[in-house]
UniProtKB/TrEMBL annotation:
It comes from Acanthochromis polyacanthus. Belongs to the phage and mitochondrial RNA polymerase family. This is DNA-directed RNA polymerase. It comes from the Eukaryota. GO terms for cellular component: mitochondrial DNA-directed RNA polymerase complex. Keywords: DNA-directed RNA polymerase, Mitochondrion, Nucleotidyltransferase, Transcription, Transferase, Transit peptide. Coiled coil: none annotated. It is found in: Mitochondrion. Residues 118-132, 149-158 have a biased composition (Basic and acidic residues). GO terms for biological process: mitochondrial transcription. It catalyses: RNA(n) + a ribonucleoside 5'-triphosphate = RNA(n+1) + diphosphate.
């Protein structure tokens, strides 16, 4: 027993020392409350027996008499402080404040002390009272020394009394002639800010919550004075404080308050306060309604989801990996190790325990599931639907399971407000899980059938209510394929995605094979065969080491992740990454992330195969083709709706949606880093493989080194020059890509939810985000209805494409020759500048010559690296296009966090450069009709960049005058007059020339079937949205919202205004204005005008103008900086005059974002189509990933636990908000074009369709713009922001936070005033989109 006693003493001593070192700063009221509770606790502990105390590891102190006296004296002083503080609270806040009686019990001299934080007998002792805010009380304090509590209280009383007297004197002096009203229940504030509501009892807190917020504001403001009207006093006090602040800042001006001015200001303050109170009242009512409608279970689930998200995701993915590879013991031990330690248990939620429940359910071991339920209870968590689903599935698998057990389980669900129908609608099933669940339920409810009610909200944005409700005139388009053809295409796509990779011929394969090329290809093939064997052996050895370490440790281990695929598949991924590595090397982080993502993609495909999802997917897709095929009946439903109905009909078997946990970025990166380390350590080559004269030794083919990116040092993986030389000389004819980077061979799976859509098996995200950012996905999952957004993405993805083969052949011929800078076809590396070689130790070079040579080497290396990147990018695009030349294909779409849409395949798509756009045409052709040929000609003139200020008729006439050049370009593109080469978009212009030539030479041009997309581009679309928001007549006219005979060019208008400012300054003798004479053009200001609307700063604008001025050879280079600085100021001034409404709205958005982020929140809003948007800009934090090859420092700026980045939040809000509006306009146009039977795709604010349907698309585009801006967009934004950020009154109503809160509320409520522009005029504007 003595040994136990010693152990208990030692343990308590260590706890005590830790407590003393980690004294936290708590508020004064918290300290008081803790002191009271400790005294009460002391009384309770007196009655505990010594044995019980010993079991609790409580050590005993034996205080000396002097220490006891001092302690009792300090306790009595502390009681005085408590009493005084409680009186202050009672006088300051008119609430019932209760306090516990503090009892003192004199400790006996031996062994029965009241403190649990003392050391053993004879050890040095310290006071155990918790001091205020980190102050410590030393042992040697004198008896006569007054307590710091008493000192602080006395000083505080004096200061407050003086302030109160001064304030009253000033108010009485100023207000002696004014009528006063008596304020009741308000005394002088005798306490410091920050302690107002801290020691209120539970009953008081409840009563405070039930008070109206407007009453709280009134009480807070009225407490500033004692006998005058609250609003007048508040106004006067604020004025005095403002004056004092000005003096403190060193202002030289004296502030004098006149009686009349004071009355005006006080009245303004009174009005302001009334406005705040009214806003608070309105918001409070709406919030109470919302709170009543939201269930506590949902709120709890939301809290669980956000807490410890990254670590929780790591644990879930680890457990799922263990279960997938069949290592159940590892998963079980890991979960227990996490559960047993409280500090680790906080990372667990119910879903983590459910993973193990599902394992035991498959095995039919109900007792193990019962144990997991006990663990849940120990962790303080409640079972959710997944928990009961696992239990019921297990009961369904057990033949002899008692009906009573099943009934108890169902009754427990009912008690927890969970319905049986929710099990079938919200749980993700694998294999036969659904059937087993239904089997168990049928034991006690034989007639039960899951409800077929679709779990979607009835809420629908007002913009699209009619679209979904009134479909009588909708004619949804069909694809030009039979149902059998589409089903065959699906099989091809399924095979591609199951393989996960696609190997295609390179367009360089057309070159003749030389002897050296053949030799290098043979050498590389031999080396790769050896590397595969070496990597296979190294991987197996490393897995054996990992399998035997950390088996029962709580730390995460990479071993399960290395068992998910066959060993050979990991090796193939590594070999492929070597083949794709650029000569200049690759960042370790990027390379590792790429490797990890490839493993994850293969793992998810394998999961779907294991869970028998492939068969069900094939069955539903084959039925889905009935909607799209041309030889089937016409449906009046959208693709998403049709798919959901089919899925509900075929409900048995596995679920297609959800169920997989996406890997956190850290897991992906760590796994990739491990594979890179294997490659660097094991891949070697003979040093004499290219030159037998060298001595033979094995050298690594990859080197791990460090380089600088800006000011940061990063890890880098660089291939050996021998490997680079072999790869370049081999010019291999095969390229291997991941399947998800290729266009799809069948129409994409429609997006039906946040987690399901696009590819058949490959994972795809609905919303793109930075690696590791999860806030976007969480917002989307909570969203009520995303039908309109999903339907618009499906419409864009359903557009079929094909290759313009004649144009592709011309481009490939130039690519395989020597490229062309003029035509944007990058030359081969043989055309790169030679890197100069020199010996830095050579004494013949001077220091300046060496510096010059080094600079030339750096420039040459940079140029080579850029040329290689551009060449490989073009090679990938052209090779994919060549591979798809005889195919019809589709691009699945997703979006960024602002709602802007993008094709999922990254290399080859219609959002690419002029080259890739030119070789893409619609698979479906439509006759030109009566106006189609004219639209083709106008489109050609638009592509040339000529006649931008001309009318449509003027452009058509110009096209007719140059018809000879158009036909020559089509017939002899490389040997004729080459008119097309001078166009802004030369390759698209050439394609258009060929289409026009074919049309005019056809027997009847109106019947000519055209596949060529015609574009209609918005006229400075960002400013169009601003002008419409502000109903700004001048701005609307400048950006073609107003009908005009000829298009208005906002860039020329700004340039003209800047020129007027410059001429005026030049007359006044300003030197830089005189230098700029004749140099101000549309081109100089265009980029800055275009990007001002998207938040470019003066600094960024100056750099843009500087770049343009440097391009003018005649402009004196020594004036570039001064001129750019001067011009950017004039551009901003000109825009401010032309777009007054725009600037006001932009400033309102910026200031709103600044105040929101300063209050600790990220800016969030909802688009008119119901898409939730959040800005993911937070303060950057560093996280170190430790690996064997290198410690990688991650700069994470999307962590929601970090404070918002105020600068990024405020600067990004205006452009992001406008981007969300232009994406909404595009989605509305897409939906209505689809219902009208049109082919429609977009490149943000550039809309594409057939020449036949341009007029129809233009009509829809204008109607939807008017419909969008007829909504009270800014008012709805204001209401949303007020509800989101202004419904929680800061606890301390008189501190700085409250002032900011009030400023934010007033700012958000005061929406910028709008002008008199009539939106309906947009429908008549020819050049709105043209």
């Amino acid at each position: 027993m003595s040994l136990l006693r010693v152990c208990a003493f030692a343990k308590c001593l260590s706890r005590r020392s830790l407590f003393e070192k980690c004294a936290v700063r708590v508020s004064f009221a918290d300290s008081c409350r803790r002191s009271v509770s400790e005294r009460n606790g002391a009384v309770r502990r007196i009655s505990v027996t010594p044995l019980q105390l010993q079991r609790k590891n409580v050590s005993f102190l034996f205080p000396e008499t002097e220490d006891t006296k001092k302690r009792v004296l300090e306790q009595s002083q502390l009681l005085d402080v408590l009493e005084a503080r409680i009186q202050q609270l009672q006088s300051d806040v008119v609430l019932d404040v209760r306090h516990a009686k503090v009892q003192f019990v004199k400790a006996p001299p031996y062994g029965r002390g009241t403190s649990s934080d003392r050391g053993p007998r004879g050890s040095p002792q310290e006071k155990t009272d918790i001091p205020k805010s980190g102050h410590t009380v030393t042992k040697g304090a004198s008896k006569s020394q007054p307590s710091r509590w008493i000192e602080k209280l006395t000083q505080e009383k004096k200061n407050k009394l003086k302030k109160q007297q001064r304030l009253q004197q000033k108010i009485q002096t100023k207000m002696k002639d004014k009528p006063t009203t008596k304020t009741t229940g308000s005394k002088g504030n005798l306490m410091s800010p920050g302690t107002t509501h801290k020691t209120i009892s539970t009953a008081a807190k409840k009563s405070r919550r039930s008070m109206k917020l407007s009453e709280e504001i009134s009480a807070a403001v009225s407490s500033k004075s004692t006998s005058t009207a609250a609003t007048v006093a508040a106004g006067t006090t604020a004025l005095i404080q403002k004056a004092a602040k000005r003096k403190q800042k060193g202002s030289k001006k004296e502030v004098f308050f006149e009686e009349g001015q004071e009355q005006t200001d006080a009245t303004d303050r009174a009005d302001e306060l009334a406005q705040v109170e009214e806003l608070e009242r309105r918001l409070n009512q709406q919030v109470s309604q919302r709170t009543a409608s939201s269930s506590p279970e949902r709120l709890q689930a939301a809290r669980d989801e956000t807490a410890n998200g990254d670590m929780n995701q790591c644990i879930r993915s680890y457990l799922e990996a263990c279960v997938f590879v069949g290592d159940i013991d590892r998963a079980h031990h890991f979960l227990l190790s996490q559960h047993r330690v409280r500090s680790r248990r906080k990372h667990l939620n119910t879903d983590v325990y459910n993973i193990m429940m599902r394992v035991w359910a498959k095995k039919g071991t109900l007792n193990q599931i019962g144990r997991v339920f006990i663990l849940l209870e120990e962790a303080g968590l409640k079972p959710n639907l997944g928990s009961f689903f696992a239990a019921l599935e297990c009961m369904g698998r057990k033949v002899e399971c008692s009906p009573k057990v099943i009934s108890r389980c169902l009754n427990q669900m009912e008690e927890d407000s969970l319905s049986v129908d929710d099990l079938f609608s919200q749980c993700a099933f694998r294999k036969d899980e659904r059937d087993m669940l239904l089997k168990a339920i049928h034991v006690v409810k034989p007639d039960f059938q899951p409800s077929d009610s679709q779990q979607t909200s009835h809420f629908c944005p007002s913009l699209v209510q009619d679209y979904y409700a009134q479909r009588a005139d909708h004619t949804y388009p069909k694809l030009d394929f039979t149902q059998e053809e589409l089903q065959e295409r699906f099989k091809c796509q399924l095979n591609v995605e199951q393989a996960c990779t696609v190997t295609i011929d390179s367009v360089e394969a057309a070159k003749p094979v030389t002897e050296n090329m053949a030799k290098m290809r043979e050498l590389l093939a031999e080396q790769r065969a050896q590397w595969q064997k070496i990597l296979l052996q190294a991987l197996r050895e490393s897995k054996m080491i990992l399998a035997n370490t950390n088996t029962k440790d709580y730390r995460l281990n990479l071993y399960p992740y290395l068992c998910l695929l066959e060993d050979r598949e990991y090796v193939d991924i590594m070999i492929q990454s070597v083949a794709n590595m650029p000569p200049s090397g690759e960042s370790l982080k990027i390379l590792a992330s790429d490797l990890g993502n490839r493993v994850y993609t293969k793992y998810t495909v394998r999961q779907k195969q294991e869970n028998q999802m492939v068969e069900k997917m094939a069955s539903i897709y084959n039925s889905y083709t009935d909607l799209l095929a041309k030889d089937t009946k016409v449906y009046n439903v959208l693709p998403r709706e049709h798919w959901v109905k089919l899925e509900m009909k075929q409900s048995s078997g596995p679920s297609l949606q959800g169920g997989e946990t996406s890997w956190p970025y850290l897991v992906t990166l760590e796994l990739g880093t491990y594979l890179v380390d294997l490659m660097v350590k094991n891949l070697k080559i003979n040093s004499d493989i290219l030159n037998p004269a060298y001595s033979r030794k094995l050298i690594p083919i990859l080197y791990h080194m460090y380089t600088f990116r800006s000011t940061r040092q990063i890890g880098f993986i660089k291939p050996h020059p021998i490997l680079t030389q072999m790869q370049q000389e081999a010019m291999e004819t095969k390229l291997t890509f991941d399947s998800y980077v290729m266009p799809m061979l069948c129409p994409p799976v429609p997006w039906t939810s946040v987690k399901f859509g696009a590819y058949v098996l490959s994972p795809a995200k609905l919303m793109r985000a930075v690696d590791g950012a999860t806030q976007h996905e969480q917002l989307l999952e909570k969203c009520e209805n995303l039908s309109a957004v999903l339907d618009s993405l499906n419409q864009l993805g359903n557009c079929a494409w094909k290759i313009n083969k004649p144009l592709l052949d011309i481009i490939i011929s130039i690519f395989n020759d020597r490229g062309s800078d003029k035509l944007d076809i990058p030359p081969p590396l043989s055309e790169a500048p030679k890197i100069p070689h020199f010996n830095p130790q050579d004494p013949t070079y001077t220091a300046s010559e060496k510096a010059h040579m080094k600079k030339e080497v750096i420039i040459a290396k940079k140029k080579c690296s850029e040329m290689h990147s551009l060449r490989m990018d073009a090679l990938y695009k052209l090779s994919i296009a060549h591979h798809m030349r005889d195919e019809i294909f589709w691009f699945p779409h997703n979006m960024d966090f602002r709602g802007r849409t993008y094709p999922c395949p990254p290399y080859f798509n219609h959002l690419g450069s002029d080259v890739t756009r030119a070789i893409l045409v619609f698979a479906e052709g439509k006759p030109l009709g009566p106006k189609g040929l004219d639209w083709l000609k106008i489109h050609l003139v638009n592509l040339t960049g000529l006649k931008k200020r001309s009318s449509l008729q003027g452009r058509l006439e110009y096209a007719n005058t140059v018809m000879e050049d158009i036909l020559d370009s089509a017939d002899n593109p490389l040997n004729g007059k080459k008119w097309w080469m001078n166009a802004d978009e030369p390759w698209q212009a050439l394609g258009c020339c060929m289409e026009i030539a074919n049309a005019v030479r056809s027997p009847n041009p109106t019947q000519f079937v055209s596949h060529f997309p015609v574009h209609q581009d918005g006229s400075c679309n960002g400013l169009q949205h601003y002008a419409a928001l502000g109903r700004d007549v001048i701005g609307a006219t400048s950006v073609n919202l107003m009908p005009c005979d000829v298009p208005q060019d906002v860039y020329s208008g700004v340039a003209q205004q800047v020129e007027e400012f410059r001429a005026r300054d030049a007359e006044n003798g300003l030197k830089i204005a005189q230098v700029l004479e004749g140099f101000i053009s549309r081109k100089v200001v265009k980029q800055t005008v275009m990007t001002v609307v998207y938040g470019v700063t003066r600094y960024g604008g100056r750099l843009q103008i500087e770049k343009r001025l440097k391009e003018i050879d005649e402009f004196p280079k020594n004036y570039v900086w001064d001129a750019s600085h001067y011009l950017v100021r004039l551009v901003f001034s000109g825009l401010k005059e032309m777009f007054t409404g725009t600037r006001e709205i932009q400033d309102w958005l910026t200031e709103s974002a600044r105040l929101i982020s300063k209050s600790g929140h990220t800016v969030q809003w909802v688009t008119p189509l119901g898409l939730p948007i959040i800005q993911p800009y937070h303060r950057t934090r560093s996280q170190v990933l430790k690996s064997t090859i290198q410690h990688i420092t991650l700069q994470i700026n999307h962590d929601t636990k970090q404070s918002p980045d105020t600068v990024k939040q405020k600067n990004a809000f205006p452009p992001n908000f406008i981007h969300s509006l232009d994406s909404t306009h595009m989605m509305l146009t897409a939906l209505h074009c689809y219902s009208a039977g049109l082919t429609f795709v977009s490149v943000h604010d550039c809309f594409w369709t057939h020449a036949l349907t341009v007029d129809t698309m233009n009509k829809v585009c204008r109607e939807q713009f008017v419909a969008l801006h007829s909504q009270p967009i800014l008012q709805e934004l204001s209401n949303f922001l007020l509800h989101k950020y202004c419904t929680r009154l800061p606890t301390e109503a008189k501190n700085k936070k409250y002032q900011e809160y009030r400023r934010l509320m007033l700012l958000l409520a005061n929406v910028p005033q709008t002008g008199d522009f009539d939106l309906q005029r947009v429908k008549e504007s020819t050049y709105f989109f043209s």
